[in-house]
Amino acid sequence: MHKLAIAIWHVLHDHTPYRELGADHFTRRDPERAMRRMIKEANSLGLTIRFEPITA
């Protein structure tokens, strides 16, 4: 809710058009933080997860 209020404030105050950043904005912005968040959530469910790079 707070981020929405900030976006609305910028649109109204700076007279800028609203620009949708996308559902994965914060994941793209800080992938390490997203990974820590996923690990923490999995651990709270009693699960252990491991990340491995995808080899193409």
- Counting DSSP E segments of at least 2 residues, the number of strands comes to 0
The portion of residues assigned to helices is 55-70%
The gyration radius over C-alpha positions equals: 17 Å
Gross morphology: elongated
Q: What structural class do the secondary elements suggest? A: mainly alpha
Poorly predicted segments? none
Average pLDDT, rounded to a whole number, is: 91
Number of helices: 3
N→C terminal distance: 39 Å
Largest sheet: none
Give the SSE order as H and E letters: HHH
- The portion of residues forming beta strands comes to under 5%
Give an account of the 3D structure.
- By secondary structure, the chain is mostly helical.
- It is 57% helix and 0% strand.
- The protein has three helices and no strands.
- It has helices at residues 2-14, 25-29, 31-44.
- The longest helix is centred in the last third of the chain and has 14 residues, at 31-44.
- The chain is elongated and about 45 Å long.
- It starts with a helix and ends in a 12-residue tail after the last helix.
- The mean pLDDT is 91.
